[in-house]
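Example 3.2
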Amino acid sequence: MRVLAFVLAATFATASAAAAAPRQAVETTHIGGYVLTVESEDGADDSPRLVIAAPGGHTTTLSLNGGLAAVKDAMTTKSLAALNTLNSKYLYATDALKDRASGDRLVLVFGAAEDPDPWAIRVLHLAANGQVQTVFSEDAFELTAIADLNKDGVPELIGRPSYSQMDNRCIATYDPQAVYRLSGGSYVYDEALSKTYNLTHRYVWAGPHSREDVGVDLCNKSGPKLVPAPKTG
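Structure, written as tokens:
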């Protein structure tokens, strides 16, 4: 029994030591008085997370399922990815996205995708007073554009909450792009802007959500057209 107890104690101690092993910094980015450190268990790409040290000493830790995703993987719109002002593999910021009232920087981070959905996304407001606020949070959203659609001086976030699935080379599922505008310190879905954006960017409109009861004919000569959903079974 003493031998068994010793073995169990040694095993528990080893497991505890492994669990308590410190994470290693992958990269460090300075923004104003903030220090943003991406760290992982192995100092490489093992489920990286973000630790934000704010002015004044407060620390915020952001973890996403599957770990942070690289900007180059999560942002397939290369022209948008190229606007990143940060020398970072995991963090994204652009001069187009700032808090209008204070001029504070907004920082984007992405999480691993769950097939067949797009990547997760978080938009963080790093305030000058040391407060970190999440102003946009979606577990499936591929950012495709940043534009001031309603001409109020504040750019909207535009992207895909879901990906279309092809039944054949012409018929796809209905998966519209979504537009989010900044309101009251956070981004909210705007159906009117979303409808206009889809219709003016050579798509169709059948409501704000993806649908399985209708399809989209992408080969129609006059532009995409709503069609009956493909028969299955």
